Amino acid sequence: MDFRSSDTITGPRSEDVLPTTATAAVKVVIVGGFGVGKTTMVGSVSEIRPLTTEETMTQAGVGVDDNVGVESKTATTVAMDFGRISLSDELILYLFGTPGQERFWFLWNGLFEGALGAVVLIDTRRLQVSFDVIGRLEERGVPFVVAVNTFPDAPHHPVEALRSALDLPDEVPMIDCDARLRASSRDVLMTLMRYLHRLAVPLA
C-alpha cells in the first residue's frame, strides 16, 4: 500500500501528552440540560484539544428534544465531551461532559463511574431543564456545585431566588460563570474541589 506523508500517524501532539510529574488523577463530570454550555466549558478550560462527540441535529429530534430557547443550536453532544486540566504538577483533573437530552441519559451510568463530583451548569432562561438533572445527582449521592452560565440575554436572579427555585441546600456552592472563558470555568472547578475537600475533611 502506498502511504503518503499526509497519511502518516505521528501520535499525540506534545502538548497533549500527560506530564511526567503527574502522580494522581481525579474525575469530574459536567452535567446540565440541553444547550446550557457543557461542551463550551470543557473546551474553554481543557489544556488539551478536547474530545467531542457533537453531531448535527436532524429531524429525528423534533418533538423529542426540548430545544425551546435554543432553537438556533445546530449540533448536540451524543456521547460525551472529554478534556484535561492540571491542578498542580502532580494532580490531573479529567473532565467528562454529559449529553443534555434525556434520551441519552442512559450514558450517564458509565460517565459517573469513579467520579468524585459534578458541576451542574444552568441557564436561567430555561431553569426547568435543570430540575431532573439535580434530582438524578441527589439520587446517586454525587456531590455537586451549581454554576450559573451567564448568557448575554439571560435574566439575572438573586442567589436566594435561584436556590429556592432549584430547591438547593444552603451548603451546596453556587457560582456565576461564563463557560466561554478559561479563567471563569477554572474557578468553577476550583469551587468544586474546595467543596469536595470540605466534605472529606469536615470542620471539628
TrEMBL record:
The keyword GTP-binding applies. Keywords: GTP-binding, Hydrolase, Nucleotide-binding. SUPFAM superfamilies: P-loop containing nucleoside triphosphate hydrolases. InterPro entries: Gliding_Motility_GTPase, Gpn, P-loop_NTPase. It comes from the Bacteria. CDD domains: Ras_like_GTPase. Pfam families: ATP_bind_1. Belongs to the GPN-loop GTPase family. This is ATP/GTP-binding protein. It comes from Streptomyces argenteolus. The lineage of its organism: Bacteria, Bacillati, Actinomycetota, Actinomycetes, Kitasatosporales.
